Each structure stands twice: as structure tokens, then as C-alpha cells.
What does this fold into?
Amino acid sequence: MRTTAPAPELLADHTGKPRPFFNMPLDYEQARLGMAFHEAGHAVLCLAYGMHVVTSEVIAWEPGEGGWAVTGKTANQALNTPAWQFAAMCAAGDIAHVNYLMAYGLWTPERAHACTADHDRELAIDVLGQFGYRLGRRTAPEGGKSWGMVRGMARRKIGYLWREIRIVAHAMNERTVLTGDEIAGLTGLANPAFVEEAAA
It folds into this structure.
């Protein structure tokens, strides 16, 4: 665990604003593993949907003596990814996080609520909107889908890939950072090549 807070950009959403924090009523090890499941959900669905994963990591630090904070980050490149698959990948983090709570006997309504990742939903809404797709927060707009529908897509995919997500989460918890190629090796899923021109 770091003794200093990470750089502000690691704690910001896609608009540059700080992501909200929720109190997760778990001990440090349980919360850290939960965050690893969150990021593993994003990373494994990225690979399953044909996106390149650069890295996926758990970020933990001591904001004050005796305290701790934990978050995570998955860096990817999503070229030519179908819109609804990209949205489902965004939804996969908090669903995998809640599944972890249920699978490990830790679920409570308060803990499930603390898994909420509105920044992932807002990223999906903004990215899809740039390409003319309509994603509603609560209801499905005409010709589009609701966040609940996208979460359903993610939940089904996570059900198929739970073994892979679990393997990646435990490896990430142990090593802190995994590359996309390491995740591919652990899961048997391909990590498509990074496209340099798109990064420029």
C-alpha cells in the first residue's frame, strides 16, 4: 500500500472531475480484493469483446495514519467495438464487485450500494453519445437502451466468464498491476494488438 495518495488524474473520471468515494464497510484485505474483482470485471470483458487491455490495477494508499483507501483503474483501447458491448464492459465493474460480495459471503445492502460506480455509467453514456447511441440512466430512450438493460448484458457475460474474472482478481490482488498480456495468459482470451495510430 502506498503511503501517499496517487496522482489526481488516477482518481478522476473521464471528464477530469474527482470520482466520488463511498465508505465500504469491510476490512482492508476484503475491500482490496473486492476492487480487484471490479477491475477484473472490466478487464476480462474488454478481452472478451475484442478490446486491447494495457493494464488493470488496484490502487491502495494511506490517506492518514491507520486509515486506508482503495480504488482501481483499467486502461484499454476500444477500436471498432460495438457500442453496447463497450457499455456492458463499463457496467461490468460494479456487477463483478457485487458478485464478489455474494460469492464470499460478504453481501449486505450497504456494501452492495458502496459498489456503485456512476463514473463508469457516465463514461458509457458520453462515449456512446459521441457516436449517436442513446443510453438512458433509468429508462430506455427511443432507439436506445437503459443502463439497466446494459447491466443485464454485462451480468450474463460475467456469468459465463466468472472463473476467468476470479483468476484475474486474485492475481491482481497479489501483484497489484497486471498487463493485458498477463491477463490474456491467465484467461486464455486474446489481447488484440495495440494500434499506435489511434493513440496519437
User: Anything to note?
Assistant: Helices lie at 28-48, 83-103, 109-114, 118-130, 147-175, 180-187, 196-199.
